[in-house]
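The following block was generated as part of the benchmark described in Methods. Ligand: NDP.
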Amino acid sequence: MKTQVKTYEMFINGKFVQAKNGGMREIVDPANGEPLALAPEAGRADMKLAILAARAAFDKGPWRKTTAQDRGKFLFKIGDLIRANAKALAELEVRNMGKPLVEAEYDVADAANCFEFYGGLATKIHGETMSVPANSMSFVLREPIGVCGQIIPWNYPLLMSAWKLAPALAAGCTAILKPSELTPLTALALARLIHEAGLPPGVVNIVAGPGAGAGEELAESPLVDKVAFTGGTLTGRKIAIAAAGNLKKVTLELGGKNPNIVFADADFEAAVDGALFAAFANQGEVCSAGSRLLIEKSIHKKFVDTMLKKISRIKLGHGLSAGVKMGPLVSAAHRDKVEGYIKAGIREGAKLVCGGGRPKGAEFARGFFVEPTIFDDVKPTMRIAREEIFGPVLSVIPFKNEAEAIHIANDSEYGLAAGVWTLNVNKGIRVLKELRAGITWLNTYHPTFNEMPWGGYKQSGNGRELGLYGIQSYLETKQVNINLDETPLAWY
Ligand code: NDP
């Protein structure tokens, strides 16, 4: 599993370059701490160059005037190139981010689908016409919003790159994408494919660097028309404030503390599997993770006991090893943060029923692993029930009836996702309608589609990505009024 350390370059104005000041960051494999790559560490100066390139490409370049059909073809080509390089991209994602290979393969396929979906949508951007008084005509034009700054987190590096770039390009915008400094590799590999697809210089720029400096420049710059951010809620607030300088359009996809509600009349086995998958997929490093499991009291004990029997099936290890279902956390610092929450849960009196530590064995010694962890009898007021842990820690909260379940579920500053398990369809839909969340599931958890909107209520965000909704936030709306009458107005 030893890898050669490769040096990556970022992509500015159609060229592959290093940071102006020579800054580099060592990227490590989180499963074993071994050096994996060197990536450029851009600062404000590099970001300024990328913004100028995107500005020039939008204002003077051919992209905005490219036909929708041609933009669509470029996007399909990027989708094809992702598929042609799927194996390498999936393995790179595993090595950089830590997730199991099967999940990375799914992400890569989904990223290709995303480019294809928006490739098709490029030709379906239509305005409206209106009947207005005789001798005039009025219609609506949809136009690209301009230069888009796009900032993404480390948990789905390639997929988030696709979610951001594909709708922006379909709309005719130009973009500067900043991946997380921890996981820039698949975004930088994607830059090579975008170059191969033949996009004009400056249309897409991919700049690897930290939020402090490079990211801040992107959020603040008066030359940027829109910022699209996915990440933590605190950072989202900073981005919104920075973007206010020139009143950029802002979309925010932020954190969650998502309730997954199991009623006594659920399909028991399906709900147990669903609860584990909701909490532990991608090591729990998922904004929509079902990290609060609300179980009806009458089945609570049996449900927890059955989860405990099944949890040993979650095999930990390097994401490229056969049968591994859970990889390491993304970094030592993030592991420490997650462990801090485990300590807080114990201190506050929640019942630790499994996990809570680091797995034993030479295989895990240098990686950033945390065991899948379940706390039972968690009170809704505890920190582990209120704050986003973003790791493999599940908080089980028993409830007595439907009204209490809804109350606990909605008692959160977040409102990203929620799940409900019951075979009573009326009750399921009734409860879903009461939940203040942007993405909801009945008798399943996690499946989501490029064709459907993604985003949160409350402090989980602002605006929607994906689907038809996703492209709207990259479009301006222009009212056009035409006088068909040659007679002068004669108002004065
Ligand atoms: P952060 O908010 O720490 O970082 C996200 C991105 O923002 C990174 O690229 C980071 O750069 C950058 N950044 C940090 N500070 C600034 C700043 N002041 N100005 C501009 N850019 C900045 O989140 P994480 O990377 O830790 O990701 C985890 C979070 O993302 C979780 O809270 C999770 O819920 C959320 N998330 C939400 C999703 C959704 O769709 N709602 C999906 C996935 C994750 P760098 O790290 O390189 O310094």
